[in-house]
Every structure is written in C-alpha cells, then in structure tokens.
Amino acid sequence: MVQEVGKEMIRKCLLTKAILLSALMWTCTVAQPLATRAQQAQDQTTAKPTYTIPEYNAFQAANAEKDSQARLKLLDDFVAKFPNSTLNQYVYQLYIKTYTELKNYPKAVEYADKLSALGDKADVTQRLQALVQRCQVFPYAFNAKAPDAADQLNKERSAAQEGIKLLTALPKSDPKMTDAQFEEQKKPALALFQNAAGFACSQLKDYQCAITAFKTVLSLTPTDAAASYRMGVAYLEMKPPQALDGFWALGRAINLKIPDSDKIKDYLRRQILAYEQPGCDSLADAQLNELLQLSANSPDRPATYTIPSADDLNKIRTSSNILTVLADLKAGGDKAKMTWLALCGAEFPEVVGKLIDITPGTDSVQLKLYTGATPEEIQAATTANLDVKVVGQPEASRLEKEQGVRFSGTLVGYDPDPNFMLHWDKAKVNSEDIPTEKGGAKKPVHKPAAKKN
What we know:
By secondary structure, the protein is of the alpha+beta class. The chain has two domains: 17-223, Alpha Horseshoe (Serine Threonine Protein Phosphatase 5, Tetratricopeptide repeat), CATH 1.25.40.10; 322-433, CATH 2.40.50. It is 56% helix and 11% strand. The chain has helices spanning 7-14, 17-29, 34-43, 53-64, 68-81, 88-101, 105-117, 124-141, 149-169, 179-203, 207-220, 225-237, 243-255, 261-276, 283-295, 310-318, 322-331, 333-343, 375-380; strands spanning 347-360, 364-370, 386-391, 404-415, 421-429. The chain has a five-stranded mixed β-barrel with strand order 1-2-3-5-4. A hairpin with a 5-residue loop joins strand 4 and strand 5 (421-429). The chain starts with 6 loop residues before the first helix and ends in a 24-residue tail after the last strand. The model is unreliable at 1-35 and 41-47 (pLDDT under 50).
C-alpha cells in the first residue's frame, strides 16, 4: 500500500517558492493592486457616485493601517457601518491580506469566497487575485479531520476551476503586449490553480482528476518538482496502481530537486520493493539508480521501460531448477536480469556436483564444484562453476577432490561469462557424502537435483 505523506510534506510540495513568487508577480502585473483600483473607483465618482465620502475615508484608513490587529478592527467597523458598500470588494481583499498576516487561514479563505461570490459586482482581476490567494493558503486552512473536510475540498476544487476559467478568458490590458507574451505571463497563475485542483482531487481520492491536473501543470511549468511528485503518488494510489508511471513521476521529482528528496527517494525504493518483491532487497538499489538516470532526461516514461512485477518473478521461481538457472544466467541480457531478480537469495534443497577443489577453514569450508545436465558431463569437468561456502559443518573438510557431493544452500551471487560462477552461502553437505575419515572411499557422482525450494 502506498504510504500517505504528512500534511507538512503536502504543503511543501504544493506551495513551492517558485509557484508562490510567480503567482505574486502575476498579481502585481496582470491584476492591478488594491490601492490603484480603489483610486480608479474614486475618480469615477464624479460621473456616477457609488459610495459616500465617509465610506471612502474609512476604507483608506484601514488600507493605510500597518498593524494587522488594528486594521482588522477598522475593517470590522467598516462592514458594520456600510454592509452594502460598493467598496466591499476592496475591503474583502484587505481582510484576506490581514487574516493571512495573522495566520488565520480559514478566515482568509472565507473572505476570498465572499469576494468571489460578488460575481460581476466585483472587478474580474480582484476576483482572480482573491482566488490566487485562496489557493495559496488553503493547504494551511484545510483540516482533514474536520466533519466538513470533503466539503472544504470540493470548494477548493471549484475555486481553482473558477480561477482557471476567469484567467483563460481574461483579455490583455496592455495593447503593446503580444498575445504570446500575455499567455506566457498567465502561466504561473494557471499552474497554481491546476496544482490546487490536483491537491483537492488527491485528497478526495479522485486520482484520475488529480493526474490530469498535475499533467497540465507540467505542460505549463515542466520543471515543477512538486507536481511531478504529487502525480506520482496519485498514480500509485489508483486501484489498481499504475506503478510504472508512478515510479517514473517520482524519479522525475527527485531529479528536479524536490524538497526532502532523500525521504522521497527512500519512499520510491520501498514502492519498487513492494511492487516487485525481488529475491534480494539490495537489487532494488540498482533499479532505482537506473530509473533516476533515465527519468532525468525524459519527462514521460518510454513504452520500452519496465520493471517486472512480483507475479512475473514468481513465475520464474516456480518453474526453475539448477539447470535452468545456469542456462538463463549464462544467456545474459534481460533473461539473466529477470532470473537473478527472482532467484537471488533462493534456497535450493539438493544440488549435485563434482568436487574440483576444497579449502578448509576455521569457521567454514569452501568448496569448488561443477554441476551439469548429466552424470557424464559432471564427471568429465575439470573447472568449477559453483563456489560453495559450507558453514557449521567442519567435517565437510574430509571431502576429497573428484568425488560427488550433494548440498543445500542459499544462492547469493554469480559471475557472468566468460568465468561463470554461482556463489552459495550457508550450505550444508549431505552427511551421507562425507567420508568417515580422510582417505575413505569416494562417493559416486549423483544425478542433478530437479528443483529448488
């Protein structure tokens, strides 16, 4: 099962500095600042008054106040005196700013929604700015344990979608700017909205929706490590998981220097192990390194890239014996790779070979054996293809060259051709094959064993 990342990790991944700074730049260029809009409204009063001088003065007093708590009191006084003021869109913007400074993020979200609810009564850029701010602070306001958590997420997704709609339709205000330049300028805010939608969809477990959103983010900002990470997690959370696409997206996020990349790298390694279940956990390290190397140069997973599943490896385990292992590993390439992933660390109950050499030791006895398809092949051999470490059986040192030996052991490594060798550990020799004393009668060469455990 894919492990859930913590709330702080989600915040880091969604609200990267690059996204925040880009969105801030957008609100300072595409969306006109609050004071400028209010001044324009004042200038228009000569032709068509829409508010009183006391309203305007009260608003300007709040706007000029530097202390957040004092400003909040002035804003509360304003809405108490002028509940239906045409300046409310600017008042709500000040509320969003003030509550964000006070780190009261749920209230900041509340006033962003109030401004957005004004619809056509508010300037479109003010609505867009409020939606940008809402999406920035929502991960801090969201309470996953709240009874209305799903409602919070659905509102966030709707707000993000509204922001995308408004921004896509927004006409340029500077005639000197080309259409291409204007579309380029909108990309950071569009990416922010898509990230917000993807976050909400992920938390709602609508993973296909999340993947679509994060893919759009990456089309707008290809180096967004957070979006790549969240897309990878969404792929792995699907039922059934789309594991290979998930692995690739996580690899891209690591290559793009996502925060806490070491933790995510360890998370990815554990996911590969769970998906594949290789015979030796250490083999996942080589696969992880290969994945990181390949994904560094390609945002999309090539169709040719694959990692075998646990079912693929189990098929090899159930159909293998020592002779098929020898043939598959000698063949090299993908065949050898798959076989080794499946059989590294496997225990074989009885392997037959001829003793070519023996090295007695204090704690173990090292045997060099040869095994083959027939007794005749084994008998004719002069070089070893099995390196066997016998542990806890000192009497195995009485074995003599040229005699037949049966042993059980754990397959721990191999050397490919041209000097092919299978390495075994924790082996035990069949006691019937050990002479009672040095120089005793040699045991005959036996037929090869059929299958492993």
